[in-house]
Amino acid sequence: METELFKNKTMSSLEIAELTSKQHAHVMRDIRNLLSQGVAESNFGLAEYSDNQGKPRPCFNLTKKGCLILASGYDAVLREKIIDRWESLETGKAEPMAKQSLTPSELILQLAQFNVENERKMKALESKQEQMQAEIEEIKQRTTTDLHQSTIVAYISRNSIKLDVSRYGAMGRKASALCKKRGVEPTKIHDVRWGTVKVYPDEILDVVFGMGISNIN
After folding, report:
1. Would you say residue 119 lies in a domain?
2. 113 in any annotated domain
3. Residue 217 to residues 40, 49, 59, 160, 214: CA-CA distances in angstroms?
4. CB burial class (10 A; 0-12, 13-18, 19+) of residue 176?
5. For the whole prediction, is pTM greater than 0.85?
6. Read out DSSP for 105-121?
7. How many folded domains does the chain comprise?
8. Do 91 and 11 reside in the same domain of the chain?
9. For the CA atoms of the chain, what is the radius of gyration?
10. Residue 168 belongs to what domain range?
């Protein structure tokens, strides 16, 4: 009875790696080198398999001719192993190959890639949470029942004032100076984007912005 592999007339690069005790990455490299030299792609079908983590990884399904072409670049012992495998497939005596196991180096590399991917996802999640918190704080500032005091950002946003963010600091210093002159102590709040920011009475900000942005030093 024909095995499934012989029925499909292919042998996977994973099998070849196990037969030859080579790393699968090295077998893939050897096949790509052959393809770059102009060997017919019809003998090397690109496919996928699932690794130990269930992630799709590339592999090749080789025809008998493809296997012999690949084996021609290996030493006599490895060529014999590949030819013996084909003979056992043709006679129906082939035993299923064990699932390809990762070498220690491949396992370390895979674990490192897994950790990097997890760290990237965690940073993206933290950034998104910070952005959401910032939006919530801004909404609080814009919808508070006490509209008689605001941060520079909230005042600009609520009044639809167009001002480059690089000028926010100048406006804050002007507002602080005016508060000091009038004996007013601005309160402080924590903002996830800007850190500790001051909240000024709107009457102060009305004067500051009423002076005209062009006059801010």
Report:
1. no
2. no
3. 71, 64, 65, 22, 8
4. middle
5. no
6. HHHHHHHHHHHHHHHHH
7. 2
8. yes
9. 34
10. 126-215
Residues 6+ apart with CB under 8 A from 159: 209
User: Measured in whole angstroms, how far is the alpha carbon of residue 108 from the centre of its chain?
Assistant: 19
Residue 9 near residue 100 (C-beta atoms within 8 A) = no
In a domain, 64, yes or no: yes
Angle at 201 between CA 198 and CA 206, to 5 degrees: 110
Please state the rounded mean pLDDT for residues 64-85. Answer: 83
Q: Do the domain assignments include residue 194?
A: yes
Q: Is 153 helix (H, G, I), strand (E, B) or coil?
A: helix
What are the b/e assignments for 109-128, b being 16+ CB within 10 Å?
A: ebeeeeeeeeeeeeeeeeee
Pairwise CA distance, residues 56 & 93, whole Å:
30
Closest CA to 179 of 200, 210, 193: 200
pLDDT tens-digit profile of 185-212? Answer: 888 877 656 667 888 998 899 898 885 4
CB 28 within 8 A of CB 57: no
